């Protein structure tokens, strides 16, 4: 593999970041992050349609975190879908860890707190809300995720075991923990194999007003 063509975090140009910043501003501070969206073909029709819709129709800008060995394939796939030009950033092989740069001597990936740098970059670009999708999503115990969901979910309540592992879960948890964003949410039909499970909040109905009984007048 020619390392010069690997889209590491440090190789994203100032021009690319500036173009993304404009899109984020038009989207009122929202961005979509898709993690290994084409990892395998097991997601099913609903997943595939949701991912395709996000890539081709969503007005919110998209960043794709893609396996170092699949960045070229994903770029080609986007062109075949006639999708807008989305930013692709390379991750480790079969892992969601973002590659900061390639070692100039060994030619191997270096990470060096790349997820923290990525989160800080999004903040500087004006991101307030991050929507996340992709593969693989797995649930586990995470107090960081639970507390964030308890605070930001409006009509649903989280469970203590929530999406926080797998490539998708790791990015979801890290952006909640490190980013300081107003909201980090999962796009329910755009994650596989596990979907977020929430309990619906049952709103208490206001009691019906009672009409006072009429007292009989004594003659």
How would you describe this structure in keywords?
alpha/beta, two-stranded antiparallel ribbon, 32% helix, 26% strand
Question: What report would you give on this structure?
Answer:
The protein is of the alpha/beta class. The protein has a single domain (3-200), classed as Rossmann fold, CATH 3.40.50. It has helices spanning 14-26, 44-56, 71-80, 114-124, 143-152, 166-179; strands spanning 30-35, 62-67, 87-91, 101-102, 109-110, 129-141, 156-158, 161-165, 183-193, 198-200. Strands 1, 2, 3, 6, 8 and 9 form a six-stranded mixed sheet that branches. Strands 4-5 form a two-stranded antiparallel sheet. A two-stranded antiparallel sheet has the order 7-10. Helix 4 (114-124) packs across helix 6 (166-179). The longest helix is centred in the C-terminal third of the chain and has 14 residues, at 166-179.
Average pLDDT rating: 91
Radius of gyration: 22 Å
Instruction: Give me the count of strands.
Output: 10
Beta-strand residue percentage: 25-35%
Q: Return the structural class.
A: alpha/beta
Order of helices and strands: HEHEHEEEHEHEEHEE
Amino- and carboxy-terminal Cα gap:
104 Å
- The third-level CATH topology is Rossmann fold
Indicate the CATH class: Alpha Beta
Largest sheet: 6 strands, mixed
Helix content: 25-40%
Supply the number of structural domains: 1
Number of helices: 6
CATH architecture: 3-Layer(aba) Sandwich
